Amino acid sequence: MRKIHILFCLSFFLIFGCLEDEGNYDYDDIKEPKWHTDQPISVYATEHNVMKLRGHDAFRWDTDSVSREREVRYEWKLNDVVIATEADIDIPVDSVIKWTKMEELCATDKWVRGSFTVIDKEFETHFMKVVSFFITPYRSNGDWFVLTEKEGEGECYFVKRTYNREESKDEFELQDSFSEINALSISGKPVFLGYTRTAKNVGPMGSITIMTDEVAYEVDAATFELHSELKDLFGGGVPSGFSPVARVDAWEADRGTGLCTFLANKDGKLYRRQLSKNNLGGMFINTPYELDEKGYKITEFGTRLYGFTSIPCWDEKNNRVIMIAFASKQAGSGWGDPSYLATSLIPLKNDGSLTNCPPVWGFESGTKVLNMGYMKSAMLNFTTSLNVYSVIYNDASGKTWCGEFIMNPSDGSIKQSVAPMPPFYPEGADSRVIECPARISDDALILVTCSSSNAKAKNQVVYTDGNHVNYLLVASEYASKPMITDFPEKVTYIGYGTSDVGAIGKYDLLVVGGENGTLKFYDISDRDRPKCVETMTFDGKITMAKEMATGVTGVDEY
Predict the structure, then answer these.
(1) Residues sharing a CB contact under 8 Å with residue 83, sequence separation 6 or more, in sequence order
(2) Domain that holds residue 107
């Protein structure tokens, strides 16, 4: 045993003796670049435009930068293809798409991985940084489509938004029209323009829906090309008397189902389609929804938030609000069993205990509902979330009322109040109805935002009065204040811009269109002092306009 210990000690000293560093090495400073951040470099580019590569903005040298620049070379790579060999360079985006053989451009929330590499010429040492390339179609986030009417015929135009970095402002320019791109006119009087950002089955930027009293087109938003006619998307054949007047969609990325689409027909019938996961397959069912013994007539949808938030509908036949509700159903009893999404029409219910609430379960005859929309969520307990909705209406005598009601989406029951539950729901909620200090006409246009990202927009209701635009302060008993008083003609369209160069929408852009073709873009970050940033003129009345806003989830789905 003693011999073993001696041998072990000798081996120990021998090994570590050999590892002793005598300091007889030559060291070379590799002079690596100092990256400004651990995050990837982000490169934003648009089809038909110029890609600005700025490698020097991503690092610095700790040594003499002039001499070091002579010792290195650069490579930008995408899809394993070298697209540039200079640190700072502008290159045509279309050339990059061709060189790298990109088969599909990015939706606004997608990107392609690449790299930026600094290479030492002498030692061939590579210092690589990951790059996220956001290469979007020419028609992309923040751009607008505008639907006009002239002499009973329609036209849809594309307006490009660009950001002027030198002057730190957005700029808008009319580019082309549906007729120019498709060599096809839009026959009939326009009734609806919709944008569905999650219709990736149509194109990477979703779809545009154009409806007139004669045709209904689904258009690829990225190319502005006609994709299909809605009448051709029905299983079993188009329904008799099919003439759609409105569309709404629901989709959510983390659910195991695809896009749910609802069409309101001119006769008030409601049709639906549900695509499978990844928005594959699926045709519209050519038999309409059925409800209860009262029936229904729905020709428009209320505003809602992105996702499977219940959609309010005005039942013109019975003077009541009906909800399109969503519920996840498990296909089996096991934990891993697949789930599917069930949709249903739910009439709202009065449980008899409500003391202050708009009568959404049944208004008096002659009531004119001007606007319905989702406002926010409220938590009843740790397992149940309720939805708070707005309804603005004129009663039979002509008085304007502003109502809010709390609904349980599982059964359509109305709650009087919900207590605050900090930290996520510190405000609580109350059902209430208030006589509006201002009289709002039956043909007024109204915006009630669903967004929680902008406190001002959430607390204000925007409405039109002839050629004026005003707003109501929700927290101040709906007190009315003027916003825009110098619009040159009767307002026929208002809408928020929610895109903010890829960030969460601020709702600080208001777009106003008129009966003589005037379209103005207003900066309303200070709503008491709106500033017009662009004026455009179209040939015909502005019927509707839609912004392409694909990059965020916390915005309205107009």
Answers:
(1) 76, 77, 91, 96, 99, 100
(2) 34-136
